[in-house]
Design goal:
With 384 residues, this protein is of the alpha/beta class. It contains 14 helices and 13 strands. Helix 12 runs antiparallel to helix 13.
């Protein structure tokens, strides 16, 4: 029998932690909350599992009841949690670092292909500077290189810790055509993209699928207006769930912080935080539940793209088989006309309403789509 320090451990979790009940083991009890946890009842629980929408700062953590011994976030990033405050209070912390690296990289990849198609840009003649080469940045670099792009990998902190990694010079970053951010948000990266550092550069495209505060949005708007930055793709916003509608209007693609959303990434996030809890409790029965690695292939109907559509609609249909970023973009722009209170609420809802996509390796695509849009072959899918 598995050994558990407590005969029954109560977990209080965000209801949007994907299929959390699937990972629940005997001896554990799960209750869920909507939107934000009810802090007044936390004394009845030993573990709290949250998402990025829940802020756990020092003040909140200091007031947590003694019953809370474990806190996990079903996200790769954890800038919404004061880790030092958790350590001071003796609370164990778990994150799902790396869970969505493939999903974010695929978002960048297909967004670049969409940009290439509509703007008639040859990616094989473009250089992309990747700021932050951890789990996500490494995946982005791999996929971009597979598409024939030249990559500039910039991550001085990693170079200090990893003897096998060499960070490019910042001058090489400034000379790139495309800039993509993949750093955590902290005191060093807050407003990393700002006039003092990038005011003398010119980019064809700037991408933020990391954290909103990494980019100084006022500077980006200024750069877009002056054509110093030609276009941008924004998935993360500085004041989420309030988002900058002026920046959205100018963005080539604007989405509500969903780059890391995929069926496999969400299952991985849930699996990782539960498995870390079980490991700490010496619950030695199947610690890592890798259900997300064995998802069945999604069969997509072999629907031809009607030639009566104009090229734009045909392309939209073709790309939508792979990824729902265009639907998110459409819906985000639709809610931007609401008043600030309402559109911020709808921003949060939009992140949970659409079904999660499958990552590319789990998708079967009809021959006709790849034949009509050969650029999609760069996604690395086999033509079935």
């Amino acid at each position: 029998m598995p050994k558990i320090k407590s005969p029954l451990l109560h977990i209080y979790a965000d209801e949007h932690i994907y299929e959390a009940a699937r990972f629940l083991k005997p001896g554990f009890e799960l209750s869920t909350y909507s939107s934000q946890p009810d802090f007044s009842i936390l004394q009845h629980y030993s573990a709290l599992f949250v998402r990025t929408v829940t802020q756990l700062n020092k003040e909140i953590i200091e007031k947590l009841p003694k019953s809370i011994k474990y806190i996990g976030t079903a996200s790769a990033g954890f800038d919404h949690i004061d880790i030092e405050a958790l350590i001071e209070k003796g609370i164990s912390f778990y994150s799902a670092a790396g869970c969505n690296a493939k999903a974010v990289a695929e978002y960048i990849q297909i967004a670049l292909l969409w940009w290439s198609l509509l703007e008639q840009k040859d990616l094989k003649h473009k250089t992309i500077a990747i700021i932050g080469v951890g789990h996500v940045g490494s995946q982005v670099a791999h996929l971009c290189e597979n598409m024939g792009m030249k990559t500039v990998l910039y991550d001085p902190p990693r170079q200090e810790k990893d003897d096998s990694f060499y960070s490019a010079d910042f001058e090489d970053v400034l000379n790139a055509d495309i800039l993509s951010f993949h750093v955590p948000l902290n005191s060093s990266t807050q407003h990393y993209f700002r006039e003092e550092l990038f005011g003398i550069s010119n980019f064809e495209l700037v991408i933020n699928a990391a954290r909103g505060g990494v980019i100084d949005e006022s500077f980006l708007l200024k750069a877009l207006n002056s054509k110093q930055v030609k276009q941008c793709i924004i998935d993360c916003w500085e004041n989420e769930p309030v988002f900058n509608t002026e920046l959205m209007d100018k963005a080539f693609i604007a989405t509500p912080h969903i780059a890391g959303y995929s069926e496999q990434a969400k299952l991985a996030a849930s699996s990782l935080i539960f498995s870390q809890l079980y490991a700490e409790l010496n619950y030695d029965d199947s610690l890592i539940i890798e259900t997300f690695q064995s998802s069945e292939t999604t069969d997509i109907p072999n629907v031809s793209i009607d030639n009566s559509f104009d090229n734009g609609n045909k392309a939209t249909t073709a790309f939508s088989y792979f990824h729902n970023f265009l639907e998110y973009d459409l819906q985000l722009r639709a809610i931007s006309f609401l008043d600030r209170t309402e559109y911020s609420k709808q921003f949060s809802l939009l992140r949970t309403q659409l079904p999660f996509r499958n990552e590319f390796r789990f998708i079967k695509i009809p021959d006709s789509i790849l034949t009509d849009f050969p650029i999609l072959n760069l996604l690395g899918r086999k033509i079935d």
